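yo, Non-ribosomal peptide synthetase is done. seq:
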Amino acid sequence: AMCEHDGFLNHLYAKIEDLGVQEGDVVAQTAPQCFDISLWQLVSGLLMGGRTLIVEQDVIMDVHTFIDALAENGVQVAQLVPTYLELVLSTLAEEHRELPGLRVMAVTGEALKKELVRRWFDAFPTVPLVNCYGLTEVSDDSNHGVMHALPAHRSVPLGDPVRNSRVYVMDERLQLLPVGFPGEIVIAGVCVGRGYVNDPERTAAVFGRDPLRPPERLYRSGDFGRWLPSGELEYLGRRDS
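structure:
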């Protein structure tokens, strides 16, 4: 996907704001450079006068070495996929270890299960857990669910749209659906990219104009969700699954 500089900057500052990246923070870059999430991990700490700890993939392959790296370098901000976070929590519990410098943990890339959220707050009751949802086509994450405790709903909501972005639940005709009705998650705003390079047919299938705010662009994610009465967005799965 071809994304714009504006979308990248918007996402970068959304991460800084919602994760509370501060001057002097150490932010862990855990994603390889070929993944979109590596961009905010690499730059956000530096923009705030902090440091970036580049965690090599061979370190991540050994969870004990990875925990050592976070602890020894005083990492305050990190992001992991849920399955790896499960492994980290299990290892910390087995070895009776802590991450005293950690101030916020974000998760991305997979559906976040409520049981993992429970385990997180059992181990780190004062450290927020942020459920990040998004796609490369919308400059990475479009939603941040910042949690300070176990959510009341049976599933973990996706959280609020990030700054300068809008998230809709729509039918096939791009009509808004009411609360409780499942539909496609559609994302609009400055975050939306231009489309796929040299692939106009694929671009036309999922990128279009926002009927509610023309001429702004929107992106049809292919994910299904619904609005909860609480105003939160629930993820229901992929359209093609």
